[in-house]
Fold these 4 entries.
Entry 1:
Amino acid sequence: MWQKVKVILFFLLCSCSGPKEILNVCCSDSNDLIQILQTQPKLRIQRFNSPDDAARKADERQALLITADQYPSNQVQLSAEFFAQIKSKKLRVYIEYPSYLPGLELEKPVKSPVDRVVVNSSFFNSFPDSLSILVVNGLSFIPVNQVRSHLVVAKVAGFDHALFGLPEKTSPLLFELPDYSALVSTTCLSRMITGRFAPQKEWTAVWKNILHYLLPGAQIENLNWNPSVRPTYGINQTLPSGYQRKAVKSGIEWYEKANMIVNNGKEGSYEAIMSVIDEQGAQPVGMVKRGDCIGETAMAFASAGALFNNGKYRSVSTNLLDYYLVHSTAAQNEWADSTHGAYGLIPWGITNYAWYRANYGDDNAREMMGIMVSSALNKTDQWDTILMRCLLAQLRTTGVSGFRGDRIDLPEFTQNGWEYFFNRDIVNLAPHFEAYLWACYLWAYDKTKYPLFLERAVKAIEITMKNYPDGWSWTNGLAQEKARMLLPLAWLVRVNDTPEHRAYLKHIVGDLLQLQDSSGAIREEIGDLKMGRFPPPQSNEAYGTNEASLIGENGDKVSDLLYTTNFALLGLHEAASATGDPEIKTAEDKLAKFLCRIQVYSPSRSQLHGGWFRAFDFGRYEHWGCNADQGWGAWCIESGWTQGWITTILALREMNTSVWDLTRESKVAVNYEQLKKKMFSVNVQ
C-alpha cells in the first residue's frame, strides 16, 4: 500500500512542476552564469562542446547560450555554417565575444580602462533605465559597425547615470543581430561574479532580460548571486557580540594579506590597493612608500598591538617608524641639514624625486599623529626628538595668520629659507590641507606651553570659521572639509574651552550630522563648483582625467572613506571625548557600526578581506561610486588615510580612550627648548 502511495505522490509532484524549458549551452563548468542557471528548477540545461555542435543538435526554436570561456585572450570561434543553422532552425541565441558575425565587420579587441557600460534602449523594461551606468571590470570589447545597441561602451561622467548623455563616440556592447533571433555581446558578460560587475541589482536585471529574450515563457527564479566581495554584515543583520573588536582584528590582518608590509616593516609599507579591477576581479598594489601612510600604518599596528597584547604588531609598528624616520632617505640630505630651510620636515615620499621633493603640512600632521599614538601605546620616547623637530619645522614655515599653504617643495626652501614662509601672510581656507596642522599645534601647545603654537592655530581657525562655508575651498567635496575641521575644534576646546570655541564645534558637528543617514553613513556633498578643486567631472571628456568626487551631484547616496568618513570618525570620537556631548557620541557610535558593517568580506580574495574601499553606496548597500578619480577611485583601499585611521579609532573605542587622553602624558617637550633655540632666530619669541 505505501509503495502505491509513493508512486502516486511522485507523479503528482511531476505533474505540478510541469515541463522544463530547455536551454542549450556551450560553456565551461566554471562559468558564473551556468552555475547560477543550474539551480533554476524550471530549466533543463543541455551541454555541448562547440557552437557548431550545439547548433546542429538543438531542436527548432530552442534557446542557445554561448559564453566566452577564454576571454579576453581568445574570441569564440564561429562559422558561417553556425549562423546558417541558427537561422534555419529559428533558434534564439545569445553569443558573446564572437570571432565572426555575418554582414558585420569586426575589429580586433580593444582593452578599455576608462570606458563604462551605458544602457541605450528600453530593452530592460526601465530597469536599468536608459543612460544607466554599469561597470564591466577589466573590459575588453570588439568594435563593430553596428548602430543600434542595448548596451554601449562609452566614456561618460556621472554616478549611476550619464549626466551629460552619451558622447559621439560609443561602441556597441549588446545588440540584436539583424536577420537573426540573436543577442550579441562584444565582451564577456557571463563572468559577472568573477569580474565583480556592479551594481549587482542592475546586472541581475540585465541577465533576467537576456534570459527572457532566449526563453520568453520561462520562469527565472532567484537569479541573484552572492558577490565575491561584499559587506561583512547585512544592513538589517544583528551585529554579533564583539563585532567592533573583530573589525579591528580583520582590519589589521588585511595589511599582511594584502602584502602591504615589507619585511616585517623593516623596509616600510606600501601605499594602497589601487582601484583598477581586472577581468578576474583582482586589483594591483600601489607600491609607493610615503611617510604619512607609513606613520598611520604604524599607528594602526600599535593600536592593535595594545588591544590584543600582540608583540608582533608592536614590533611592526616600531619597525615602520624606524624605517622611515631614521633609516630611509627621508631622514637624510636637506631634510637633515640644520642649515637648510627644510630641516626637520618629513618628505612626502621616497619612491622617486617627485615625491621626495614635496612637503605637505597635512601629510606631516597625520604622520606626527601616528608617532604620537604609536609612542604612547608602545610606551616609548624614541621618536620624541623627531616629533618635536617636525612640529617646530612646520610652525616656522607657517605664515603669520596660521596658514601654510597646500605644499612647499625643496627648491622653494633652498631659494627662500624658512623665514620667508614664517613671515608671509597667506590665507588658505582649505581644511583638507590646513586643519590637522592646527590640531598638532594645539597638541604641542598643551605639552610645551609655547604661545606661538596656540596663537597661530587659533588665528587661522577663527579666520576659517568666519568664512564658513561659502569662503571655503573644497578638495573632492565640501563634506570632507567639515569632517577635517572637527579635530582641531575638538582639541581647541581641550586647550581653550570658551563658549565661542564650543559654538564653532557645535556648528560644524551639526552641519556634518545633517549628512548622516539613519544607517550611520555620511553622505558626500559638493559645494559651489567655483570653490572646488576636484569636483565631479563636468563633461564626459573630463571623466578620468583628474582627481574627483565619488558622486555626480548632491543627493547621490555615497560615503567616501578616503576623504570624509574616516576623518569624521576620528573627529567625532575626539569631539565626544572633549565635550561629553551625548548627541555627538550617538553619531559616533552610529558611524562606527556602519563602518563595521561595510568592512570588506571576501574569503576568496584575501588581499581585500578586512579592508575598507573608498566608496560605499548606502542606498544600494553596495561598494559602488563614480570611479572618475584618476588615482584614487571607488575601489581603492588606502593603507594610511583609510585603513590606518578606521582601524585605530575602532581600537581606541575598544580601549575606551581618545587620541588626546592616550597621549596626555607625552614627554615630547623634553627637547623643546634646545630645538627651538636651534631652529628659530633669536628675535622669534
Entry 2:
Amino acid sequence: MFQNFEVLSSPDQAAGRLKRLRAGFAAQGVDAVAVPRSDEYLGEYVPACAERLAWLTGFTGSAGLVLVLDKAAHIFVDGRYAAQVRAQTDPAVFAYQDLISTPLSAFLEASELTGLRLGIDPWTWPGAEVRRLEAALKSLGGEIVFLDANPVDAIWDDRPEPPLGAVSIQPIDYAGVLARDKLASIARTAADAGADAVVLADPSSVAWSFNIRGQDLPSTPHPLARAIVPAEGLPRLFIDKRKTGMEAEAYLTQLADLAPPSAFDAALTALGRSGATVMADPAVASHAIPMLIEGAGGTVLEAPDPARLPRACKNPAEIAASARVHVQDGAAMVRFLAWLDGQAPGTVDEIGAATRLEQLRAETGESLQMPLKALSFDTISGAGPNAAIMHYRVNTLTNRKVAPGEMLLIDSGGQYVAGTTDITRTVAVGDVPHEQKRFFTLVLKGMIAISCLRFPQGTRGVDIDAFARIALWRAGADFAHGTGHGVGSYLSVHEGPQSISRRGMQALLPGMILSNEPGYYRDGAFGIRIENLVTVHAPRAIEGGDAAMLGFETLTLCPIDTRLILPELLDATEIAWLDAYHARVRAELSPLLAGDPALDWLTAATAEIGV
C-alpha cells in the first residue's frame, strides 16, 4: 500500500518544541521566527526530513506557516484547512490566521510589533514573498534576519535522513520532445533575455527538461534536484549520484555535467564572481539563490521559469498518453464504485474505501500493462461530517463507517508513467436527504458549466471561476477553494501557472490540463465535490460566430451518481451534457470491463436521466 493511515503528529508536543525554538532566539539575534510548510525546493509536497511545520505544530496540511513570537504563536492556513488545523493543533498554544485574507506580510503590517527582527531560512522562502515581508517589517522599523541554518533542524533530534529515490528516464513516447531540444530552447530563452544562464530551481521543471522522473517524494515523481542551464555550453545538473543507476547516469551525462547538491552554492557564487547575469524566477526560486549570486557580484534577472509554461502546455504525445491513462483509471474507479454499491450500508469505513480503491487501481494497472507507480496524493475519503473537511486525511483515530443515508466523498488519483490522474466522486450510501441532493445538483451545475464553456483567447482562470459558483451563489452558498488547478504529466498533481480560481491570472492555453472541481461543505454535516480533469483544446469555429473559441475536453471517465441528482434543477442543456458524458463513459470503459460484474453496474449507472 502507498497510503499510510497512521496518525502523523500530535498536538500535545507543540508547546515543548516551541519552547526549545524560542530558546535559540537570543543566539540568533531574532525576536521571532517564521517557519513555512515549504522546503528548500519550495515544493507543495516535501520529504519526511522537511516536514518542519508538521513536526513543530502538529498541522500536516500541504500549505501554511507558523509565526513564533516570544510570547505567542500564530499559524496561517487557507480555507481548505480551516477545520483541519483546529483538529490537529492546540488552541491554547496557537492563534489561527487566514493565509489568504491575512498573509503574514499583511498580518505584520497591521500588528504593533515595532522593531521586530524576524528570522527566516532563506532557502525555504521564495524571493517574491521575502520582498513582501521586508516591506512589511520596514514599515514597523524592523527587519528580516537571514539565518545560516534552519532553526527547526537545530532542535529536531530524530530528523529523518534525506531521500535517495531512484531516477528513471521518461520514455519519449510519453515525453513527446527530446530533452536536448527542451534544454536548447531554455538556453535560447536565456540568451534572448540577455542572460548568461538560467537557474531551474523547481524540481518539476528539472524533471520535465531532462525527461527524468524520481522517487524522492511519496506523490510527486520528480527527483529533488536543481540545474543551471547556460546560454552557451553544457548545463549542470545538481543531483545526488546515489539516485542514478548506470542507465540514468549514462543518459544524463550526455545532457549535462553532473554535480552533487552540495556544489550548488559554490556554483551560484562562481557565477556571481564572474559578473554573470542569471535568470531566476522569484516565484519558485529560493531567496537564497539571488542572495548568493548578487552577494558575489553577479546580477539576477527576474523572469518566469522558462520551463514552466511549456511544461503546462502538454504536447500531443502527453495529451494522448493522459487520455489513455484516464481510460484505465476510469475502469478502476468503476470497479471500485461497483464494489462499494455491493456492500451493505454501514459496513464500509473510510480507510476500507481508500484501501480498496488503491488495490483496484493497482490490479487494473497490472492487468492493462500500465502499473500504478504511486498515488498522486493521499486519498481523501470522508464520510458524512468528515467530508466537510475539504482536505481531510483519514487516519486510525478519525476513521468512521459510512452510515446509511450519508454520502462518501472520495478524492483520489494515481501516478502512472503515462500521466497523472485526479478525480472526485461523491456517492450515496442508502437514501440521502433531499437537502443534500439539492446541493449535490447545484455543485453539478457548476461542474457542467465549466465543462461546456467556450471562451476567447486570452481568457484567464479568474475570468471563468464564477461560472462554477453561480448556482451555489443563487442559493446563498459558496466553496472556499479554487475551482481548478493545473495537473502535470506524470509530475505534480498540482501544477502552475494555470488555475481556475480567484487568483488564476495565467491565460488558459491549448494543451493545459486542469481540474474542474466545484464543491460545497457544511461544517459538521456533509461535504460534496465533483471533479473531472479537462484539457484546453485549440480554438474552434462556432457556427454563426465571429471568432474561434477555446474550450475544454474532458479526460476523466467515470459515472456521476445520478441517485443524488434532482433532475428538475437541471436545464435541458445540462441534462444533454450529462447523458452524453455518460454515454461516452460507457462506450470507452465497457471494453476494459468485459466479463467483469462491474460492467452491469456501469450500464445501469450511465443510463440516461431523461428530460
Entry 3:
Amino acid sequence: MDQKLINFIFIGLSFAVYIVIAIRSRAGSTKEYYTAGGGVSPLANGMATAADWMSAATFISMAGAVAISGYDASRFLMGWTGGFVLLTILMVPYLRKFGKATVPDFVGDRYYSRMARGVAVVCAIFICMTYIMGQMRGVGVVFSQLFGIGIPAGVVIGASIVFFYAGIGGMKGITYTQVAQYCVMAFAYTIPAIFISIALTNNMIPQLGLIGDFTAGDPDAVPISFLDKINEINTQIGFQEYTSGKLSKINMFCITAALMCGTAGLPHVIVRFFTVKDVAAVRKSACWTLLFIAVIYLTAPAIGAFSRVNLIQELHQTHYKEVPTWFKDFEKTQQMAWVDKNGDGKIQYFGPAKSQENTYTVFKGKQPTYKSASKDGSLELGSLGQRLLTNEIDNSNPNELWFGNDVMVMANPQMAGLPKWVIGLLMSGCIAAALSTAAGLLLVLSTSISHDLMKKIIKPSLSDKEEINYARVASFVALVVAAYFGINPPSAFIAKTVAFAFGLAASSFFPTLLIGIFSKRMNKEGAIAGMLTGILFTLGYIIYFQFLGGKPSQYLWGITPEGIGFLGMILNFIVSFTVARFTPAPSQEIQDLVENIRSPKGVGAAVEH
C-alpha cells in the first residue's frame, strides 16, 4: 500500500474521532465554553493538559533541536519541565482557590483595576499570538509533507481545522478532544523510538539505548557507547562533540530560566486547571499531567540522538542518484535541499571544522545548481528553502546539505526504514501535537477578548450568547493573523518562535501572578508598571533582533532573544516593588483576600511583606 494512503488512513481516522468528540461535547453555556463546566476528572484533565502542553515545539521541534545541537538543546528540556513543576507548586492551587477562569480576570480583581485587567489582556494577546505562530508553522510543516504541498497551503488547511473544532466546542470540546490527541501522540512518539532503538542499540527501551552500546543491529559488533559513537561521527565530519555545548553559560542560564518562568505564566496552561472541581482535584490533575508529559520528554533526547546518527549515515557522501526516496520527497516540499558545490554528484555534509580544512573558493565559475526532483533540475525556493539556501550559501564552506531542524522527527522513521504504518502513526501524532496546543491557545486568546475585554471593560451588558459570538469572531481574526505569521515566521525554527512567547510570559505574567499571590502589599500601580516594563522591554528586544536587523554582536551580555525574558522578569520585579513602595497600599479587603487564597484554614495569619 502507498505510504501517502496509509498516512491519510491514520490521520483521517484520528480526525474523525476529534470532530465527533468536538460536536458531541460542544459548549452550551459560557461556563462550558470557558472551563468545560468545571467537572472534568483529574485523570482526563491530566491527559488534556499534557496534550495542550506538548505542542509542535515539543513533539516536532524539540527532538530536532536535540538532534542538531546536542547538549545545548537541553535548555528546552530543563526549562519546560522545570517550569511545569514551578507552575503546579506556586501558581495553580492558589489561582484555582481564587476562582477566576482567566489570568486577566485574576489580575483585574486582585489589583482592583480595569486598567490592570486591560494591560493583562494585551499581554495575553501578545503571548498567545506569538505561541500560536509556532503552532501554525508546525501545522504547515506537517501538512506540506503529508500532501506534498508548500508550507503556506499547509498552514491554511491546519488553521481551518483548528477553527472548526475549537470554535464549536469551546473548552469542553477541546478538553475531551485533547484526551484523544494525547493518546495518539504518546503512541506516535514512543513506538518509532522503540523500533529505532532496537535497530541501533539492540535495546527496546529508547532511554536505555541512548546510554547503552551502539550495535546498529549487529549482535557481533564491538561494543561502543552510543554517546561515544555519536561524538565520533560528529567530530569526523567537523562538528563539535554531541555531548558538549557552545552556548555561553549566562545565555544558557537565561534561556532556561525564561522558559521555566514563562511556563509558570502561560495563560492557556493555567486555565486548564479550572476545568476540575476543586483545589484537591487540581493537585491530583497536576500529578497526572507530569506523568503523561514524562512519557514524551524522557523519549525526546533518544529520538534526537538516533535521528542525528541516521541522517549522517544515510546521506553523507551518498551519490545523489542513490539517495533514498524520502530525501527527494522532502526536497519537493522545500524542507531539505542539496547544492552540488564541487560537481561530484555526492552529498557533502560538513561542520565548521571541516569547512576550514577543505575550502572551495569558487563554484567552477558558475552559480550553484539547486537539485530537486523537478524536470529541469531546479528548485524554486520559498519560505524555508529561501532562508536556508540564499542566506547560508558560502563559497568557502563545502557543506552541501541544508534542512530544517523541525523535519528531523518526521524524517527519522523513514531514515531508519521503519514499516509504513509506523510512519503513518507518527504523522498523525505530529498533527495532533500542533492542533491540540493551537486550539487551547486560540480559546484563551478569544476568551481574553470576549470576556475580559468586551464583557468586563467595554460592554458589561453582554449576554452569554453575545459573549460566545464575540469569542468566535476573535478566534477567526486571531487565526488569520497567526496563519500569516505561520507562513512568514520570526524564525524558521518552531521551538525558537515558541521560546519568544515564553519570554513574554516570564517578563509579564509570572512576576505579576506570583507577587499577587504572596504579597499583600503589592498594589495596582506597581503591578501595572511592572507588567508594562517587563513586556515592553522583552518585546522590543525580540523585535529589534528578529525584524530590525540587530546583530548578534549587539546582544546584551551575549543573551539571545530567547533568553531576554529572564531580564525582563527581573525588571518587572524591581519596578513593581519600587512603584508599590511609593504608592498607597491596597485596601484591607484586598489584603484579606490575598491571605485567604494562599493560607489554608487554621494555620494563622499570613506574614505581611
Entry 4:
Amino acid sequence: MCGIAGFCGAGTLQDLEAMAQVLTHRGPDGANNWFDPERAVGLGHRRLSIVDLADGSQPMWTSDAQLGVTFNGEIYNHRELRADLQSRGHRFITDHSDTEVLLHGYREWGEALPEKLNGMWAFAIYDRKANQLFLSRDRFGQKPLFYAESAGCFAFASELNALEQHSSLTFTQSVAGLQKYFAYGYIPAPHTLYREVRKLPGGYNLTVDLESRTVRTSQYWEYILDPFTEISHKPEPAWCEELRHLLGQAVERRMMSDVPLGVFLSGGVDSSAIAHYAQAASSTAVHSFSIGFEEASFDESEYARQVAEHVGCTHRSDILHMGNASGLAPKIASRLDEPMGDSSIVPTYLLCGNAREAVTVALGGDGADELFAGYDPFKALRPARLYDRMMPGKGHELLRTVMAALPVSHTNMSLDFKIKRTLRGLSYPRNLWNAVWLGPLGPVEIGELFDKPLPLTELYAEAIAHWDACPQEHMVDKTLQFYTKLYLQDDILVKVDRASMMHSLEVRAPFLDIDLVNFIRRIPHAWKYRNGETKYLLKRALEPVLPHDILYRAKHGFGMPIARWLRDGALIVDPANSFGMRQDFVQRQVSEHLAHNADNRAFLWNMWVLQNRRR
C-alpha cells in the first residue's frame, strides 16, 4: 500500500515533494518524486513494500519511457494479466510487480484497463505520446483519490491534506460538504470539505488533456443488482457450494504477499469466514488479531478466541480500556485528512496497531454486511413499511414526542436509541429512511444548524439516486443498493483505510472480489434477508466450516461509549468553534447531553471530530 500525489500545470518540484512528504505514513519504505519542468508534470510516490520488494519502486516507467505510473493498491489477478500480456508480445522488466502490469495493460487496452482488474487501486498514468493523465479508482473506492482544479493547475493525491501542500491551490469551505457531513456522518463522493476539491467516486476514471487542461470523468463500473434470471431457479445447496468456492478463491488471491500477513478476527460471521479460508490456504498457522472491551455490551473477544481455536490460527487479543480509548481519540482525529463520524475508527485504529506489530498485511470482513443485508435496519423495513401505511401524521408526531421523553441510555445501540432513530426516519419519504436513520442529524436539525439549509433533494441527493437506480422495487433491494453504493464506500472503507494507514498496515477485503461480487448481486434478496435472518445464505453456506453458535449469535458491532465520554468531559465540544454554523444550536445540543436530557452523541461526536481534525 502506498501514497500517491501529482499535478500538471502550475507547480514546482518542491510542491510535489511537500505533497508526498505528508503521505509518509502510507509509504514508510521509500520515496521517489519525478518532475518534468518543460511539460510541467509531476508524479510522486511513497512506498509500503508488499509485492516484488526489489523491483517495485515508483513512479515506474515502460522501457521506452513513454508511460509512467504512480499507484496505490494491489492487483490480485496480476499474474494472469501478465501472462496474457506476454502472449500478446509485451516484455516485462520486473519479476512479479503488479505495478508494471498496469503500464503494459494500459498500452494494450487503454482506458478499458480498469475493467480487467481484480483488486483495489488508485493510480495515475502519464502518457507522453497522448499528452494526458489517466486516473482510475477501484470499483468500490477501497483506495482514496482526491483531485483539485484551479486556474493553471490540476493536482491529485491519496489524501486531502497532501493537496493542501501545493502552493498554487487555494481552498474554501464547502457549505454543501458540511451539511452532507452532518446529514450522513461522512462526506459522500464526489463532495469534500472544500469547494475546489473532489473525490473521484469508486468505479470511475478521470482523464486530463494536458494541452487543453480539460478534465473528463467516466464511469466504467457500477454495482447494480441483477434482474435475477437463471439463479432464481437454482437450488440452495448449489448456491452455497458456489459461494464457498468463490469466497475461498477470493481469500486465497489476497494471500499474495512478500511480507507477513494475518487476519482481523472479531468472532462474527464475516471475519470468521475469512479466518477459516485464510488458514485453509496456508501451510502454517495464520496470525489473527482482535480487540476486546472491558465493558460487556461492547466485548466480543471470547467469540474471537473460540473461532481462532476452531480454525487453527495463532491468536492475539488486546483488551481496550475505555479510559485509554478516549485519550487516543484526539490523536486519531488530528491525523484525519477529512472528518468522518464513525466512532468505531478508535477500536479499528487500535486493532490495526496491534496487527502491525506482527504483520504488514491483514485481511478483513468488510463488505459482507452491505452485500448480504447484515445490518439492523433491514429488520426494521417491514414493520416500518406497515407503520408508514397505518400511522397518521399527527399520531406519528405524538409518538415521537412520547418516545423523546423516555429515559436516556448510553449503552451500545440501546433500545431507546434504536426506536428514536427509527421514528425520526419515518418522518420522511422511504428513499430517505436509511440516510436519516444513520445520520447524526435529521433534516429539521440541519435546518436549525445552518442559516441556509439545502433542499432535501439536494441534501440527500446521493441516497435518493442510489435508491432510484435500483432496478428492483422491493425495499430490501433498494436498501442493499444504498448500503453497498454509499455507506460502504464513504464510511466503512474510509474508516478502515485511514485507521490502517496511520500504522502503515495494508488491509484487504476478500468480500469485494469482483468474481464474488458478481455472483452475490445475482442472488435474490429473499436469500440474503430471510424471515428475519440477516445474511441468510452466507450463514447457510458456512455451516459446514464454522460453529453454529458463531454463525447465529447476536451481532454486536464495533461501537464506542462516546455518549459517556462526552457527558463525563473526556471529549469537549466547543460551541464557539462552529465553522460558521449556528452556535446556539451547538450549545443546546451540548447542554441537553450533559444534563442527560437527550442522547446527542452522534451530532456531538461528529462536531468534535470536525473541530479536532488536522488543519
